[in-house]
Amino acid sequence: MSLKKGNMEKQLFEEQENAFYQRLGRALRLERIGQGLTQSDAGKAANCTFQQIQKYEKGSNKPGEFRVRLLVESLYKKPYDQFLKEYNVYPCRTENQ
Length: 97
Fold this sequence. Notes:
The protein is mainly alpha-helical. Helices cover 70% and strands 0% of the residues.
């Protein structure tokens, strides 16, 4: 029984994590477009390709906090915490956190 419970908890966490990255990607895209920037501009600021920015914005790749901070603070000129609050994007939490 506990194995099933563990699998269900893992699946729930993965679903929450995926939902977080989807919301984060939408927020990054809205901010980029609002600033009048291209994906190439964002890629240069984050030291990655525009294809990588595309994947972040779609939520199919999971950017690390460093890369998100780099985009938000250097390119979008906003404090990281303000960005998360403005777009209502917060990392998922488990019951144990």
